[in-house]
Structure formats: C-alpha cells, structure tokens
Amino acid sequence: MPFIKIPELSVHYEQMGQGKVPIVFVHGNFASWRWWRSVFSHLPEHYTAYLPDLRGCGDTDHTANGYDIEQLATDLHLFITALNLPSLHLVGHSLGGAVVQQFTLDHPECVITLTLVAPAPAEGMSHLKQEHNSFITGLLESFEFHALLHSLHLNRSILLRIFKQMTPSLNHQTADFIALVDDAARMPPEAIVGFMNSLTTWNVQNRLNELSLPVLIIWGEHDTLVKRDALERMILALQHAQLVILPMVGHVPQLEQPDSFNQIIFEFIKSNGTSLQNQYSFSTLRTATLPKPSWWQWIKQKFSAS
Asked: For residue 7, what are the CA distances in angstroms to 33, 61, 84, 90, 184?
C-alpha cells in the first residue's frame, strides 16, 4: 500500500508492471483504485500502471476542501511530478474522466493518449440541476442530507442501489463488489458534495479543439448517468477521436465487460492511438421502452419520502 506525499495531502496509489511506459488510471466518484482491478491481468509488458486514489477517496487523505475538478487535476499533476513519470497514457472513468480532461488541457505535453471511460462530458453535467430544478441544490445544502451522508456506512442500501443501477450486467454478490461499496461508504460528505457541485458547473467543451492527441471514448449503451449526445458533441469538437459503444453495458465497462474493455484500451494504447477505427463500434437498436430512472431520481424519491 504505497503512499506519496504532495502538498496538502498524502496520496495512496497502487502500482503494477515493470515497463518503462507509464499508464495512469483515474477512478470516478464514489470509487477508489479498486475499480481498475480488471486491468491487472491484462497489462501488456513494457508498461507500468499507476492507480491513485483521488483526494477524499480510498486511502488518500480526506481534506476539508479541494473537491473541485480543477484541484483534482492539480493533485494529479503533483502526483505524477512526485513520481517523476515521463510522458504517459492517461485513462479516466466518470468523474475521473473530467479530471483527466482538465489535466490534459493544462499539461498536453505530458500525455501520449487519452482514454475516457463513461466520462463526465466536457460540457459538464449541468443537467443534474436543470432536470431536478431546485431539488439538487437544496439537497446538497441541506443539514438532513449531510447527516444522511455521515451515516452512509450504516445505510448501505443507498450505495448498493446506486451501484447496482450503474452496473446492471455485473455480479453484485462478489467480495470484490462489496469492497467497492466499502470504499464508497468511507467518503466524507465534503467530497460527495464537492464532486457533485463541481460536475454541475465545470465546462471545457469550448477548449477541446486545443487537443491534438488521440482520444478514445468508451460508453455503455445502458449508461443512465452519462448522455450519449454529449459524448458525440465531444467527438465532433476533438481533432482525433473515436466513440466506442459497448452493448449490454452500463456505467462501468471495465468491470462489466473486462475482456472486451481491456482489449480495446490496450490496443489503442500500444498503437499510441493509431489503431482508432470502427471495428469495436456498435450501433444500438432497441424497441421502445420506458426509460429507467437514474440513480439521482431514485435518491430524490428516497429523500422526498423520508
């Protein structure tokens, strides 16, 4: 369980491989390095993987503030600098997708390829507030909600419901899945509220044309959190990018379809992005059904009824 000290906090990370080329994997919200465990058995030789816990997550320090995307990108740069890593491949999931986008815009010279997995779109997620009007704002600021967050380690049904909805094709009875829930339950309320607030205000869509490196975006067709049209707008704005859609997958492709996921990302990384093509893209046709409620809607119903 290695740690490295950067200004303001001690960062926990995991490391595997002995190669000269680094790949840094950045996890999402309610998460930790464990969300990347599926890459361990697939890591190609010549690479070393670094999997840090973000501020307030996993075993990295829980601070009173600093839970906006810009600060998380600064933390990532300090982490990479402290390890004296050369140019690297960068992979981010969900909230971590926003962090690595911000990092790459701030330090494009450091990144060889960028892989975004079910990422927070570059235009942010302001729809979380727009769709629910004043509910989200009031919820994030309410004393009762903060009290609820403090007791999440006791009221695990909320976390279990959220994770099951985000990963519909995953086996939810395994020890690995329970470990993911345990990590989420340790997050401080300051991190939960800070991450959510930042996701609804952060927006770098108009800067995407600054990026000339290869970008791969992976999205599951059953993802109820990230909107496909927002990712398509990213593809149109980027100079060299591809959107890969995985069928029968929700918000966590790396856990739901690890074999396909790892084949796709490591082919992309090993080719330094030159393998971008359509062979892994899938068009998705479905019969008309009522949309599944998002986990935000479920929290709203749960909280409003209490």
From this structure: 21, 11, 15, 22, 24
150 — pLDDT class (breaks 50, 70, 90): low
Fold of 3-305: Rossmann fold (3.40.50)
In 3D space, the residue among 129, 128, 148 whose CA is nearest the CA of residue 304 turns out to be: 148
Are 279 and 245 in contact by the 8 Å Cβ rule? The answer is no
Q: How many residues does the chain have?
A: 306
Helix ranges (DSSP H) in 186-252: 189-201, 228-237
- And the tokens for 265? 């990302």
> Which tokens hold the place of 17?
């491989």
d(CA 158, CA 171) in angstroms, rounded, equals: 18
Whether the predicted pLDDT of 88 surpasses 60: yes
Alpha carbon dihedral 52, 195, 147, 136, in 10-degree steps, equals: -150
What ranges do the domains of the chain cover? 3-305
Q: Which structure tokens are listed for 191?
A: 């991190």
Q: Residues 6 or more apart from 95 whose CB is under 8 A from it?
A: 27, 28, 29, 31, 54, 69, 72, 120, 195, 199
pLDDT at 148: 54
Higher-pLDDT residue of 149 and 114 is 114
Q: Write the CA distances from 202 to 18, 100, 107, 128, 206, integer angstroms.
A: 36, 13, 18, 12, 12
Q: Where do the DSSP E strands lie in 46-110?
A: 47-52, 88-93
Given a contact cutoff of 8 angstroms between Cβ atoms, the answer to whether 179 and 34 are in contact is yes
- This prediction has a pTM of 0.85
